[in-house]
From TrEMBL:
Upper taxonomic lineage: Bacteria, Bacillati, Actinomycetota, Actinomycetes, Micromonosporales
Residue ranges of every copy of the HTH merR-type domain listed in the record: 4-72
Identification of the protein by name: Redox-sensitive transcriptional activator SoxR
InterPro entries listed in its UniProt record: DNA-bd_dom_put_sf, MerR-type_HTH_dom, MerR_fam, Redox-sen_tscrpt-act_SoxR, Tscrpt_reg_MerR_DNA-bd
Keywords, in A-Z order: 2Fe-2S, DNA-binding, Iron, Iron-sulfur, Metal-binding, Transcription, Transcription regulation
Record has Acetylation as a keyword: no
Example GO molecular function: 2 iron, 2 sulfur cluster binding
Pfam families on file: MerR, MerR-DNA-bind
C-alpha cells in the first residue's frame, strides 16, 4: 500500500471534492507535499484530518475553530487517542448545548406540525406584530437566552 495519496485518491477515499481539499489546504487544515512536477501528495493520515473536518462542520463548528483545534495536535506524528480526547473535550459543552437545542426543536416542532399551527398562542415561532424585535435577532422563543437577556416576564414563568 502506497504511503502517499494523490488528490484524486484522497478525494475518493474521503468523499470530499478536490476543490474542497485544495481549499482546506489553503486554510492550513491539511497538508500536502509536492512532487518534482508540483503535484500534491497527501500522507494517509490526512484522511483522519479530513474526516474530523467534515464531522466538525456537520455539527456546526466553523472552519476557523477547526483550524485552531487541528493546530493543537502534534505535527510530527499521527495524533493519539489521548490527543483526540483532549481536543473533543474542548467542544463537549457546546455539543451538549446543541443536542439540547436540537431535541427541543424536534419536540416543539412535533407539536407544531401535529396541530398544524392552528393554535398560534402556543406556537414557538409566532411573533405577531414583531413584538420580540427589541429583544434581539433570531427565534427568540426557541433559542436559549443569555442571562443578561432575561426579561421580567421570564421570572414569572
Amino acid at each position: 500500500m502506497q504511503d502517499l495519496l494523490t488528490i484524486g485518491e484522497l478525494s475518493v477515499r474521503s468523499g470530499v471534492a478536490p476543490s474542497a481539499l485544495r481549499y482546506y489546504e489553503r486554510l492550513g487544515l491539511i497538508r500536502a507535499d509536492r512532487t518534482g512536477g508540483n503535484q500534491r501528495r497527501y500522507a494517509r493520515a490526512e484522511l483522519r484530518r479530513v474526516a474530523f473536518i467534515r464531522i466538525s462542520q456537520q455539527v456546526g463548528v466553523s472552519l476557523e475553530e477547526i483550524r485552531a483545534a487541528l493546530e493543537s495536535l502534534p505535527e510530527a506524528r499521527t495524533p493519539s487517542p489521548q490527543d483526540w480526547a483532549r481536543l473533543s473535550e474542548t467542544w463537549r459543552g457546546r455539543l451538549d448545548e446543541k443536542i439540547r437545542l436540537l431535541t427541543k426543536l424536534r419536540d416543539d416542532l412535533d407539536g407544531c406540525i401535529g396541530c398544524g399551527c392552528l393554535s398560534l398562542q402556543r406556537c414557538m415561532l409566532n411573533n405577531p406584530g414583531d413584538t420580540l424585535a427589541g429583544e434581539g435577532p433570531g427565534a427568540r422563543l426557541m433559542l436559549p437566552r443569555a442571562p443578561e437577556e432575561s426579561t421580567p416576564a421570564d421570572s414569572l414563568a
